[in-house]
Amino acid sequence: MSLEVLALYVGPDQVMPVMSVLATIMGLLMVFWTKVKLFFARIFGLGKSAAPPPASAPVPSSPAAPGATPPSPEPPK
Known about the structure:
The protein has three helices and no strands. By secondary structure, the chain is an all-alpha fold.
């Protein structure tokens, strides 16, 4: 066997520490996933905007008949 072929050999004694580090990183990501998402959202500006959206009028529960007048709003109490 040539030396190049032996240099490409990756045995379990070399792979296990690397896999252990990768498993640790993935485990920490899963535990703190919401904090990781919030961190990246703040960095890239993907979070909620500072101003809330404007309030809209309530939607009636049933559609009005064609030509009917909409109900008047209730007077303030």
